[in-house]
Amino acid sequence: MKFVPSLLTDIDWNQALRQDRTHALERLYAKVYPMALHYVKSNGGDADDAKDVFQESLVLFYEKVVHDQLTLTASVSTYLMAICKNLWRQELDKRSRKTALAAQQPDVFWEEPDVELPPAAPLMDFVAQLGDKCKDILVSFYYFGQQLEQIAGRHGYRNIRTATVQKFKCLERLRQSVRHLSADRFRQ
């Protein structure tokens, strides 16, 4: 005999989900999905969004019930709708952040400069004069964009602060080397 919960308590749903999961989930779907669909549609979503949100909330509910982590103080439909509303708000927040980010970013990511840039070789000569360690730190950080954590680990520094100080010292030595030169020195 199938167990069909008459009251919407956590104990009944726990038992129902353990005895006949398919039937219990179908009942929940039939009862609560129309409410979730209405909520999502009235807040800028469509049927596919509502299905995604509702199915995710149903999975969360099921996991909590099966792992005995749920004590309901309201009906199951109220609980599921609260999850749906929270998930849909989170999805709307994500979408608005993506839209705002896309609006801020230009369509063209790179434009060729109108002026001819000097070759990097003369500057690299000065970097090479600093020594292998400084050259590696500066090239790794500024050219390859590596994090200081990676640089600190590769050079055996105890922490990121030590790598930061070393990078600063190397950069200062490079500045001192090229300070007396004019921009004409780098044009060939």
How would you describe this protein?
The protein has 188 residues and is mainly alpha-helical. It has 2 domains: 10-104, Rna Polymerase Sigma Factor, Chain: A (Orthogonal Bundle); 121-186, Arc Repressor Mutant, subunit A, CATH 1.10.10. The protein has 8 helices and no strands. The chain has helices at residues 10-19, 21-42, 47-66, 76-104, 121-129, 132-143, 148-155, 160-178. α3 (47-66) packs across α4 (76-104). The longest helix is centred in the middle third of the chain and has 29 residues, at 76-104.
- Runs with pLDDT <50, length 5+? 1-10
Coarse shape: elongated
Topology order in helix (H) and strand (E) letters: HHHHHHHH
| Structural class estimated from helices and strands | mainly alpha
Intertermini distance: 91 Å
**Arithmetic mean pLDDT:** 80
- What gyration radius follows from the Cα positions, in whole Å? 31 Å
Question: Which descriptors would you attach to this protein?
Answer:
188 residues, mainly alpha, Rna Polymerase Sigma Factor, Chain: A
In short, what is this structure?
This protein is mainly alpha-helical. The protein has helices at residues 10-19, 21-42, 47-66, 76-104, 121-129, 132-143, 148-155, 160-178. α2 (21-42) packs across α3 (47-66).
